[in-house]
Write a structure and sequence with these properties.
The complex is a heterodimer of chains A (117) and B (111). Helix content of chain A is 0%, strand content 52%. Chain A has no helices and 11 strands. Classes of the chains: A mainly beta (117), B mainly beta (111).
Chain lengths: 117, 111
């Protein structure tokens, strides 16, 4: 149980295009999901908290108009990187909070490698 | 939310040896979780220890928690090359579900 998937696992795009990344909780419902980005050999940086049916909460310094988050259902959150630039190249990871778990543990997706040319 | 800080930043050991890594945090917690990240992959949940627990085991993993010192340790016994990964702790404080990760401990197990 408590499996989280991401799609795609990797994507290469041209500068200026938009890319959508999906995060799904496969066997549980998640009203709250989280999006992180990670640069090589660095830690995960929390970008935003995705709330089902309401607006996402962004961390300080994260541009909400550039990183659009939509949490339209209890099992799906999407992150759209708009007008991507090479500096947006990174590893994007989502996590989902399992409300069934005794302490609402978070479970992580396998990540999406984004390369912007 | 609060950040856990892992120590050491890097650790290199021989296969079969034990690996110990530590995590420190600053304010009271409800529980603390340890995660493993293989290179280029997502995080795998290893173990959760509650604030009223002092020690917990899972296979070759042993986690301790000292709330008076605001620290936790993760011990991997009889390490294997497959244990090579980065390890992160995530202290959980009531009132928020956000995790703020530290830089992790990069463990390398040499065959």
């Amino acid at each position: 149980g408590a499996v989280v998937s991401q799609h795609p696992s990797w994507v290469i795009c041209k500068s200026g295009t938009s890319v959508k990344i999906e995060c799904r909780s496969l066997d549980f419902q998640a009203t709250t999901m989280f999006w992180y980005r990670q640069f090589p050999k660095q830690s995960l940086m929390l970008m935003a908290t995705s709330n089902e049916g309401s607006k996402a909460t962004y961390e300080q310094g994260v541009e909400k108009d550039k990183f659009l988050i939509n949490h339209a259902s209890l099992t799906l959150s999407t992150l759209t990187v708009t007008s991507a630039h090479p500096e947006d190249s990174s590893f994007y990871i989502c996590s989902a909070r399992d409300e069934r778990a005794p302490l609402n543990e978070q479970f992580f997706g396998p990540g999406t490698r984004l390369t912007v040319l | 939310s609060q950040q856990g800080e892992e120590d050491p930043q890097a650790l290199s050991i021989q296969e079969g040896e034990n690996a110990t890594m530590n995590c420190s945090y600053k304010t009271s917690i409800n529980n603390l979780q340890w995660y493993r990240q293989n290179s280029g992959r997502g995080l795998v949940h290893l173990i959760l220890i509650r604030s009223n627990e002092r020690e917990k085991h899972s296979g070759r993993l042993r986690v301790t928690l000292d709330t008076s010192k605001k620290s936790s340790s993760l011990l991997i016994t009889a390490s294997r090359a497959a244990d090579t990964a980065s390890y992160f702790c995530a202290p959980h404080t009531s009132g928020t579900y956000k995790y703020i990760f530290g830089t992790g401990t990069r463990l390398k197990v040499l065959a």
